[in-house]
Amino acid sequence: MFKKAICVAMLSAVGTVYAADVPINGTVQSRCIITTDTAGVYGNPNAYTLTTTPADGGQLAVVRFDVTLADAYYAEITAPSSFSSSPTLPDTVTWTGDTEVSAVSDATGMGSYETNKIELGMTDKYDLTATGSTWFKTSSTATMGGNKAFPGGNYTALVEALCVAQ
Amino acid sequence: MLKKLLLSVALVSWAGYCYSDSIATYPGVTPNVSAGGNTWNMNNVLPSGVPGLDINLIIYSYTPQKQTADDMTVHIQNENAAGNGYIFRESDDWSGLPGGTEIRKVVPVVPSNRSLWGNGSIEVEGTGTVTEPFVFYNYRVDPCYDPQFDPNCPGYVQPAPPEIETVDINSLYDPLADSAVTDALSSTETDRYKDEEIESDEEKKKKEEEEDKDREERLEKALAAANNALLFAGAVAQSQLLDSMNMAINMNSYYAASIDGGTYKESVTLVDTQLPENKTGLRNGFAQQLLHEKMVEMQYNKKK
């Protein structure tokens, strides 16, 4: 009787199911890095205009895209259409802006970026077909409606740069 | 004990710092070598007198100016100083691409010694030009390229002390063995002639007597001169003593003199009166005036 009892106990132990979750970790390094090369500056050629045009005392904003994988990303750069911070404005502001390729690190692979870009309003879309660095410069102009003067104070507008996977 | 340990650690650290500081490789970068044109001499752009310099990176940028349809290739290059061809040549093919877009490149190269790097240039092949070129060479310097640069360099060999040449004394020139010198030192004919002269005893005695006389005379003159000098000095001293005594007597009379005080009243009195005209002077002056006028008139009344 005692021997039987032991056998039953052993069989029970063999039939029990144990489970374990084994993690698999991974890190994906971005192959597209966006770096601000030069912050833009608004010049104030007249009371109702703010512009980044160098001739008017402004400075273009320059952003750099470093890509280590070709034909994998789009660069989407949008010129500002509003101030992120400003004094209270007396009227509506009209915005214009544009983005151009400023410099490239590969003539053959990147030389046609500017001609092949797609413009969607204030957004310019570039197909990053080559590895390397590309510098994009963005201009922006804000004009106060009704020729009213911009109130004194600090103004900040943001250029949006995106690296979108294809 | 702790102080000693800290001191020893500090000394070891300091020594290690000095070691690493003196012979460690260090980086450097040239200025824009294309500032003076599209060709450059590497000896003019790299630091001079540094043999252990290896170029390991080239950074350049420029803006091509061209029409899109034109073919254009830009070469940034350095001739191979140790042979034919180029030791470095980076080409950018802008054919069929629009101009006006700046290119910025960082090109790493296998570090190689400066002696291999010949003249550099920016060469444009095709139609177009290059504006705003910037070319920089990044390099590293190994001070121990020549191990003898520093005793801490690996492979440094302690220089052997300079050998001192052993000289065979017998091979040196001995002037006394030179026949010309010995001939010059030997007696001349005149000396021999004098040596051969034989003086008689009487002549010798005469000469000795004359010499004795002369010696006595010279001694007398010397003694007389000394005596005269002593006498003169005594006379001068006596005269000075008398002068000083007389001076004392004369001066004492001045010291003893007294001057009476008092008031010296005005003794002359001038009485106011009228001074008469000096008629003689007036007359004389008048005569002079007449004479003067006469002389003046004479020049106008010249007789022809």
The CATH topology of chain A is Immunoglobulin-like
Structural class of chain B: alpha+beta
Helix content of chain A: 10-25%
Beginning-to-end CA distance, first to last residue of chain B: 137 Å
Oligomer: heterodimer
Rg of chain A computed from alpha carbons, rounded to a whole number of angstroms: 29 Å
Chain-averaged pLDDT of chain A: 89
Secondary structure layout:
The complex is a heterodimer of chains A (166) and B (304).
Chain A (H helix, E strand, L loop, with lengths): L1 H14 L16 E7 L4 E4 L2 E3 L9 E7 L5 E6 L4 E3 L7 E12 L2 H4 L7 E3 L2 E6 L3 E13 L11 E2 L2 E6 L1
Antiparallel strand pairs in A: 1-4, 2-3, 3-10, 4-10, 5-9, 5-12, 6-11, 7-10, 8-9
Chain B lengths: L1 H22 L2 E4 L9 E2 L1 H4 L7 E13 L6 E9 L5 E8 L8 E12 L3 E10 L2 E13 L37 H7 L3 H8 L4 H56 L22 H22 L4
Provide structural commentary.
The complex is a heterodimer of chains A (166) and B (304). Chain A is mainly beta and 166 residues long. Chain A has helices at 2-15, 107-110, and strands spanning 32-38, 43-46, 49-51, 61-67, 73-78, 83-85, 93-104, 118-120, 123-128, 132-144, 156-157, 160-165. Chain A has one domain (30-165): Sandwich (Immunoglobulin-like), CATH 2.60.40. Chain A is extended. The longest helix of chain A is centred in the first third of the chain and has 14 residues, at 2-15. Chain B has a domain at 24-149: Jelly Rolls, CATH 2.60.120. Chain B has helices at residues 2-23, 42-45, 179-185, 189-196, 201-256, 279-300; strands at 26-29, 39-40, 53-65, 72-80, 86-93, 102-113, 117-126, 129-141. In chain B, the strands form two sheets. In chain B, strands 1-8-3-6 form a four-stranded antiparallel sheet, with no helix packed on it. In chain B, strands 2-7-4-5 form a four-stranded antiparallel sheet. The chains are: A mainly beta (166), B alpha+beta (304). Strand 7 of chain A pairs parallel with strand 6 (102-113) of chain B, so a sheet runs across the interface.
